[in-house]
Amino acid sequence: MTPHRYRLLRPKRPWARALPALAATAALIAWEVITRIHHLLYFPPPSTVIARAYDLWFAGPAFLTDQAIEDLLPSLTRLALGWTLAAALGLAAGIALGLSPVLAALTNPILHIGRAIPPPALLPLFLATLPIGTPTQLATIIYAVTWPILITTADGIRSIDRAFLDTATVFRLPRRQRLLSVLIPAAAPRILAGLRLSVSLALIMMVVSELAASTDGLGYRLQQTASTLDIPAMWAVIVLLGSLGIIANGLFLLLQHRLLRSRQSTPTHGHA
């Protein structure tokens, strides 16, 4: 049934796969034509935005400009480091909560309170207690990103089919091997879903933290272009951030597809 449902979601004709690209192209053309005709101050034509982005970041002697290094390198470093630390924390805590009903019951009120607090609301606290700059931004990203990873990991561990646990018991697997070879692979779909969701959230919180407490990065550049009314540059930053989100999501989808495919192709001992 699952393969059949999957086939229904895929385009039946080859030309249907090109529809998203055609729709995006049509939207860009319409945007270009409308803004050229009406001369909208805060909505420059896409061609102007692309030209401004090229001048800002991609017109250097070695492709990237000094401005690109100043804007991209700090942001990507914070994004990668914050997501990695949050993933490690969320996975560890989620596995512990998923394996221990007692621990889950004891920490449930704290977890509910923590999840209910909007991460940007803690930014003033981080600003007051941490050095302004990367520590503040990392704290903001880690706090926001840990929750979806923790929750999906715990749910994934709790929802494992009993047959997998019985298989591990029959083979008398040590605790570590049971975790790495049985529990995590069995919970992989939900864990990967949480990790994928957290990538977009990490990008959002990176921008939020850089808007409030940074002297470099894309969020800081966005604030500067808005305050100086450099509208094409402001849109260039927005488009670049959107592109980073699309690229990150696409790469994670590819990784998720390969991991799940390799998991399905690996036979499970004692499980038909």
Automatic annotation (TrEMBL):
Pfam families: BPD_transp_1. It is found in: Cell membrane. Keywords: Cell membrane, Membrane, Transmembrane, Transmembrane helix, Transport. The chain crosses the membrane at residues 80-106, 193-213, 233-255. Its main location: membrane. The keyword Membrane applies. Residues 72-256 form the ABC transmembrane type-1 domain. It is a multi-pass membrane protein. The keyword DNA-binding does not apply. Coiled coil: none annotated. Belongs to the binding-protein-dependent transport system permease family. This is ABC transporter permease. It comes from Nonomuraea maheshkhaliensis.
